[in-house]
Amino acid sequence: MLTINSLSKSYNKGKNFALEDVTFNLKAGQVCAIVGESGSGKTTLVRLIAGLERPDHGSIVMGDKVIASLDKFVQPEKRKIGLVFQEYALFPHLTILENVLYGISKIKHKRKRAQDMLDLVGLSDLGDRYPHQLSGGQQQRVALARALAPEPSLLILDEPFSNLDTMLRTQLRNEVFDIIKKTEVTVLFVTHDTQDALSVADEILILQNGKVIQKDVAANLYVNPNTLYVASLFGSTVHINKNLQHAFRCPLKETCCYAIRNEKIKVSPSSSDTDCEYITTAQVIKKIQLGESIQLLLKLDSGEQLTVMTQDKNIADTIFIGFNSTDILEFENE
Amino acid sequence: MKQVGNKDEAFSLKTRIKRLKRDSNKWSVFTLAIVFFLALPIVFIGVELFAGPGESWSHIVDYLLPDYIGNSFFLVFFCSILVLVFGVSAAWFVSRYEFPFRKQMEWLLILPLAIPSYIVGYAYAGIFDYGGSMDLLFREVGLTFIRIDIMNRAGLAFVLSISLFPYVYVSARAFFLNQANNLLEASKMLGVSEVKTFFRLMLPLARPAIVAGLVLVLMEVLNDYGAAKYYGVNTFTTGIFRSWFSLEEPQTAVYLSALLILIIFVLILIEKWQVRKMKFTSSKSNSKQIQRKPTKGIMKGFIFSVVFLPILLGFVLPVVQLIYWAVLTAATVFDMEFIMISVQSFAIAIASAVITVFFALILIYFSKWSTLSAIKNISRVGVLGYAIPGAVIAIGIMIPTLALDKWLINVLGNFGIDSGLIINGTLIALLYAYAVRFLAVAYNPIDSTALKVDNSIPDSSKVLGVGNLKTFFKIEFPLIKTGVFSAVILVFIDVMKELPLTLILKPYHIDTLAVKAFEYASDEMVMEASIPSLFIIFTAMIPVIFLNKLLIKK
């Protein structure tokens, strides 16, 4: 449905690249989340796809049509892509209904279509209000209705929930994706929050420093992360460096990089209680009660510090920790 | 397979050319065309330099040029000192202290801008004239031996300063009000005195803002013709007029214009250098405005006087003098012809305001829609006209249009058509000149309101399937209306006041109020000049007050 081919973009004539050699494709009907920190190139990528920026290299193909390449550029207004901006970008001088009508002035029964869209997002009665009279969450849904009204073949959501507080965020995220599921549109969903991505996306694409690090289904990203960075995005992870290898007496290859998820590190009061392959002793420096479980800040004999979780309330000052070789994550050296 | 480095390839010459081909659109071409059109008068001055100077050039270089240069530097130097004293002190006191009538004075200080410098000049000439108000006053108190002659370059420097200081006042005040609070509080917490805080902290920090205002003043000083002519001071502008009208040597006028452009260019370079040196000044405005200090006793009286003095000198005294004259001359001046001139003035000012704003909008939005990044920078060239004195622009338009008309007369003559002058000496040339000269006046308020509209707004319109032009009319224009409106008003005022360019380019059967006032004054009928002057002042005053409200809101 959408094919991106070695796409590059620089804002300073090639000194730095906001996006470098990005290649991936998207199947119709899929929800794909693009995850990355700020500055990783997420927004540049969606702006290129929407036609709001022009690529310095590479191409974008939608369906069987090239919409951007070195020789060709289809104007954003001709691309049939829906875009919901982070700041919603509702037209402040138009009513809610006029905002939704804006992109569908040429279709038949546009009023009915606009009203249907407002019904879909649950704002049927607010059509004659102005954007500033609405709450953040309501504005968000208007932006969604406006983007969906022209029946785009691709819908892009650019960090749509980052302006909202956590409580509202989860609720609205679920609502928005319930609405989107009904329309069966293909979705690109940009976020810096892995929880957002995990809860709605069929596939997740990880961007770092303008490059695609990994694109996969959520479960695979957890089990088989490509890099330490990806691993740590989906749960806290400990890099098993030289000192730790020595402490746990687990000889590993030098050419690779290894890590273990914190939750895979097992805590036991004595060495005989554990069935782990690699064990070491640790001093408990600090205990933090986090609801049911307790977070322990530990110090190893080698001086390394690390944190583990346990359910055990009677923890001694010196404990044994360990893990199994099957839980070790292995990466190419970075 | 050998992988070609995408990074290197993306900025290889071949890809660049491909992209240039992909990204040049009609907007880029239109922008370039408009910029060229607006820069044309200056280009012609440059081209004409190659034709060599006129016959009297060596005479002028020997006898008059030293005078032009000497007087220009004298005016630049003393006007700088005076406008800094008036403008900065008033700005600091109204921003920092609370005293009686502070709110009223805050906008009264802008009113001198409503009076063109040459009219202030006429008024002061009257005030200090033999038998004038000052003379009568001195005689009343028995000081008959005091005669102050202001019809010289010192008097001219005073007149120009007192009418132009608000440029410095406005930019300095904007800085003091919006940017200075945190630093001021920090200085207070460190126990530094008010006076020291002002000289050691506020003044250096406000320097870029003050210099920006000062450069505007100096451009106006070098642009002035009416006051310098009346005070008998030889400057570059009076020299250009003399070569054009008396000596009838366009080439000499061109050479003087080029020299004047050079001087202004140096001034702008100094400004840029000043601002760059002060780059550490944060441009982020602190949300909190400065806290005003209450004043007591002598301090209160002192601050009140310092702030009121420029209002008195720059507005009250000249206007009172003009009203006095107006009462004396109303019967003779106010007739049908005068009403016609007023109507013409208004019509010309409105027409050129609309045309200029139209060009400004085109320049701003076309360059935005052009996807080549270089175009945006090139578009700024179109704004340079404001730095070029009106007389110079007029010469830059006069010469090519005369040549073009001559050519047209020849060509059409071959077909037996007697066309006469088509462009030169018509309203077309005049309106074109106004647009070149005042484009920046329209450009800046529109550009700053346009910047406040987040890019995502027009972007989302485009993604919804609506093209550039339609997006502009349906979305952007409604959102920048206030900016466009203030731009129209600002250009309107400037055209109403404009003198040198109008004198050179106006069609001979058309007069403006400014020209009429100038003609009366030149014909030794300065009292009669008061009524057209007051008309200009009052039309300019209403929008100045209105615009100040906008400024304060900002």
TrEMBL record, chain A:
Chain ranges of the ABC transporter domain: 2-234
InterPro entries cross-referenced by the UniProt entry: AAA+_ATPase (IPR003593), ABC_SmlMolc_Importer (IPR050093), ABC_transporter-like_ATP-bd (IPR003439), ABC_transporter-like_CS (IPR017871), ABC_transpr_FbpC (IPR015853), Mo/tungstate-bd_C_term_dom (IPR008995), P-loop_NTPase (IPR027417)
SMART domains documented for this protein: AAA
UniProt record, GO biological process: quaternary ammonium group transport
Zinc-finger listed as a keyword: no
Keywords: ATP-binding, Cell membrane, Ion transport, Iron, Iron transport, Membrane, Nucleotide-binding, Transport
UniProt-recorded Gene Ontology molecular function terms: ABC-type ferric iron transporter activity; ATP binding; ATP hydrolysis activity
Source organism superkingdom: Bacteria
Gene Ontology CC terms: membrane
CDD domains with a match to the protein in the record: ABC_Carb_Solutes_like (cd03259)
Record's protein name: Iron(III) transport system ATP-binding protein
Automatic annotation (TrEMBL), chain B:
All copies of domain ABC transmembrane type-1, residue ranges: 69-271, 342-547
Primary location class: membrane
Gene Ontology biological process terms, A to Z: transmembrane transport
A Pfam family that the UniProt record links to this protein: BPD_transp_1
Bilayer topology annotation: Multi-pass membrane protein
Compartmental location: Cell inner membrane; Cell membrane
Gene3D superfamilies: MetI-like (1.10.3720.10)
GO CC entries: plasma membrane
InterPro entries to which the protein is assigned, alphabetical: MetI-like, MetI-like_sf
Keywords: Cell inner membrane, Cell membrane, Membrane, Transmembrane, Transmembrane helix, Transport
Bilayer-crossing regions: 27-52, 72-95, 107-127, 154-176, 197-219, 252-270, 302-327, 339-366, 378-401, 421-443, 479-496, 531-552
Top-level taxonomic group: Bacteria
Record family assignment: Belongs to the binding-protein-dependent transport system permease family.
Protein name, per record: Iron(III) transport system permease protein
